[in-house]
Amino acid sequence: MEDSPSMDDHQDSSLVVGVGLCDSAPLLWRLQDLKTARRLGLVGALLGSLPRTPRQNQRLGRPLLLLPEEEQLLRDEEAAGALPGPNQDVGGAELRRQFEEDQQRSFEEQSVLALEDRKSALRRAMTSSHTGSESGAEAVDEALCGRLEALDHSFSFPQSAMAVQLSTARAGLSYCPEARAHLQASWPIREQNNPRSDARYQVFRDLRGRGFYLTSAGKFGGDFLVYPGDPLRFHAHFIAVCLTLDESICLLDVLAVARLGSNVKKTVLLCSPVPDGGVCYTSLQWSGMV
Amino acid sequence: MQIGLCDPHSLVGPRRQRRDCNQESCDWCGAHQADQPKTANSFKSVGSSTERGPRGMLLLLLRLVNMADQNKTGTEGKLFSEILSPSELFAARSRSHKIPVRGQKDFFPNDSDEQRQRLEQSLNEHWSLTSEERVERLGNLVKAVWIPSDQIVELQSPAGKFWQTMGFSANGKQYLLPEEALYLMECGNVQVFYRDLPLSIQDGYERFLSSATVTLQQYQVFGHLKRLGYVVHRFDPSSEPSSYARQLNLPQSRDRAGRQLKRKRSPSPTATCSYTEAQVESTIEKMEEDKCSLEGDDAKKLAASPDIQTATTSGADEGRSWWMTDDLGASDKELHHSPTSGSSRWDFSSIPFPDVGSSERHPSCLAPPEPSLLPGDLTVGVCDIASWRRKINLRMVKMSSKEQKREKDTRRRRWDVNKDREVRRCRNWAEYHELLARRQRKRKGRPAHLWNREVTPLHDPKQPISTGELLDKISVIKSTHLLEGASRLKGSEQWRICFNVYQPDTVADFKKSNPGKPYSRMCVCSFDGPVPDLRAIKLLAFQSGDIPVVFAVVDHGDISFYTFKDFQLPTDVFP
Question: Is A235 a catalytic residue?
């Protein structure tokens, strides 16, 4: 609590990511959770409109959707917990009263700030228009005081001019970080037990452990896009296709994915978890006659 | 209470720094400092105010209030607090509305400082954009209320510009669908309340989106299209006009309200096909009709022939058997070969045919016919033919020797039809006619072994036919089109059209009551699910009518759009 850097570190390591479930999809809402996840190398995908410019699709805002593998990794590392659902803290009379009080206080403060703002604008306007004039500083001062007095009396700040926040994350949850143990117990078990998803998770864990950043690659015909560093700064190098060792694939599928990979200038990786816990990787390279 | 130095490069976030920074020229909160009274942020300066008068009192009040504000949230809470203070809210008016442009990416990570710096810069920019909260002027916000029992949002202040393309009226009130309300919340146009408290965006997602209303994936597509400017409405299969109604160009009236405010939202039944697809002529259907008619004829023949058979057998039973001979009892004077099947052979040797013109015999009267041959109770007596015979020229023809010789020659050359073995094999006129027809066909190039079996040649080369028709006959695989057979398909839960999408440039004169034809229809699916099979594509194309169906495939934040087009292979043949 004394100086910022060590406080941050301590908090980072003990922070639990709060995950909200929407239509059975894991979403991160709070900025701190997004940062924690990014620090763990989990990129996710932003789904919502960006508050600054909501009507464009280039940059999106919160919530962040996690891959099922990312969710499972957080759970395995005990770094995530379920946020309480929407109905748990439906407003009681106490919250309503507090909300009204907060709104009233905000309104009053904003009125004061607005008046201040107007006055300083007026001051700037009057002094700048009279710089260099020879009429004398006293006259300017007097006029200024007069105007300011008038403003004090006549100024009104209408309710409709008040600035109001539309919260992204649910407000009631932002007051304290959740204790790890408390949330662990409430994590819904949503495991998919099929060999393909197992393979995907093994590959995800292994690649993440080697320091790669992974995102979803449905558009590229694979399971993951593998980045050597943060996706904000680097292009993806690989398209990872996850298969179980005993799964047989048609040669035409191999050709299709290799062709696709060469078109987008990425190397295709065929990944399979091996029984001893590691993962075996095979890359496809399109070569000519050697 | 943090009084530490402000480190603009730390990743904790700008929000915290603004409150705590005491530096005058900090990059992060320099601007912020200039707006506000400087002393609002620290304990130290409470007592050092030099201001006097009402303004000074106000400032003091502000400082105290701010401190109280900070103390309430506590130190740990600051990390998660995303609530803006009133001063921050006020300062948000002068926010920039531009997004920084992303620079070029690097190829490979090395441990250079340059890369690290650029990464930090990108990340900071990313966090500052993502952390920004929505701040709107209260007068610009439309107030609304969430009604969970109807899964609908009711407006409580007049709607804004969005009303032109979104929402509907019912019972004298204005309503928004949940996905529309959530989108408008994200845009900062609407503030939705539930039990007198405003809902956050998180509340909106968790309460409004479900499989009963609109799923998260469908909302992703909805939001994506709306942000691009399209007008997106829910698709209702029962309100689509039938193809017949479309042919007649009937004006369509849309009643969004009636559908949405039903208490029990049961899935609307798939449209039953009460109309015929008159315009969809298919050769297969024609062939089916032909087959039916043929079958009908055959059936008639089949029905008729038993009658014939019964007639003959009954005849046999009734004693008309004296002209019928068995194989064994056939006299071998006339017959050089025994018939193969003979239960109904006529023995002509025992059937007298009166030779009225013969000069040898002079019968003056004919014997009466066999009574069993006569119908009913008819009896015929002896017939006197003397008068008839007098009318016949019975003179013998006298031929000269030359004529006789000619006659003999022609008779010799003339093929005696009775010498033909196949003719002899015919037992009755019908068989003889068949023999003649068979011979005729063979002569004309239609040999029996080709044309009289189950498998006949596809086409008689002697018949004229155009190349196009011949190619049609040859084609084993008939070409078909997408909608063929689609009317028979039952709807499925897995594949259904979610939205109608209208072009953005029609927004100016868009009418919700009569939106016109949509630009396309959306079906939302994901890469985890199956690829639509032909059955699904036919079903959706049929439901959609003549509007193309687009598959919006959602992949964790990325949306790809695919559509299938009906395509006819070009034919090179012109009739």
Answer: yes
Cβ count within 10 A of residue A7: 17
ipTM of the complex: 0.88
H-state helical runs in B13-52: 14-20, 30-35
CA neighbor of B19 nearest in space, from B516, B64, B172, B4: B4
In this complex, do B138 and A159 lie within 8 Å of one another by their Cβ atoms?
yes
- The CA-to-CA distance between both ends of chain B, in Å, stands at 92
> Could you read off the pLDDT tens digit of each residue along chain A, which spans 290 residues?
333 444 444 444 567 888 888 988 999 999 999 999 999 999 999 999 999 999 999 999 999 999 999 999 998 888 888 887 776 556 578 888 888 999 999 999 999 999 988 888 888 888 777 665 555 566 777 777 888 888 788 888 888 889 999 999 987 543 334 444 445 545 555 666 788 889 999 999 999 999 999 999 988 989 999 999 999 999 999 999 999 998 899 999 999 999 999 999 999 999 999 999 899 999 998 777 76
- What is the DSSP track for B186-241? HHTSEEEEETTEEPPHHHHHHHHBSTTSB-HHHHHHHHHHHHHT-EEEE--GGGSP
**Angular region, B530: left φ>0, alpha ψ -120 to 50, beta rest:** beta
Q: Measured between alpha carbons, how far is B64 from B40 in angstroms, rounded to an integer?
A: 8
Please enumerate in sequence order all residues whose Cβ is within 8 A of that of B81, keeping only pairs 6 or more positions apart, or say none: A174, A175, B15, B73
**Which of A10, A71, A101, A166 is most worth mutating to test chain B (most B CB atoms within 10 A of its CB)?**
A166
- Among B151, B174, B179, B173, smallest CA distance to B164 is for B174
Residue of B nearest to A44 (CA): B556
Q: How far is CA B80 from CA A171, B131, B550, in A?
A: 10, 11, 41
> Per-residue b/e over B340-359, b at no fewer than 16 CB within 10 Å?
eebeebebeeeeeeeeeeee
* A90 close to B (CB below 8 A): yes
Which of B35, B77, B109 is facing A229, going by the closest CB pair?
B109
Which residues numbered 62-121 in B keep a CB inside 8 Å of some CB on A? 62, 65, 73-77, 79-84, 86-87, 89-90, 92-93, 95-99, 105-109, 115, 118-119
CA nearest A216: which of B119, B307, B557?
A: B557
- Length reported for chain B: 575
Cross-chain residue pair A105–B185, CB shorter than 8 Å: no
- A110 vs B330: CA distance, rounded Å: 130
In this structure, the number of other CB atoms found within 10 A of the CB of residue B61 comes to 13
Residues of A in contact with B187 (CB under 8 A): 49, 54-55
Q: In this complex, do B137 and A161 lie within 8 Å of one another by their Cβ atoms?
A: yes
Write the DSSP string, chain A. Answer: --SHHHHHHHHHHH--EEEEEETTEEEE-SHHHHHHHHHTTB--EEEE--SSS-S-SSS-EEEEEPPHHHHHHHHHTT-EEEPP-TTTT---HHHHHHHHHHHHHHHHHHHHHHHHHHHHHHHHHHHHHHTT-SS-HHHHHHHHHHHHHHHHHH----GGG-EEEE-SS-GGGGGSPPPHHHHHTT-------SHHHHHHHHHHHHHHHTT-EEEE-GGGTSSEEEESS-TTTB---EEEEE--TT----HHHHHHHHHHHHHTT-EEEEEEE-TTS-EEEEEE------
Report the run of H or E that residue B439 belongs to, with start and end.
Answer: helix B429-443
Residue type for position A86: P
Q: A129 is written with which tokens? A: 């228009």
Place of tokens 């969970």: B148
Position B260, amino acid: Q
HEC letters along B419-438: HCHHHHHCCCHHHHHHHHHH
Does the beta-carbon distance from A168 to B134 stay under 8 Å?
yes
How many angstroms separate the CA atoms of B275 and A214, rounded? 53
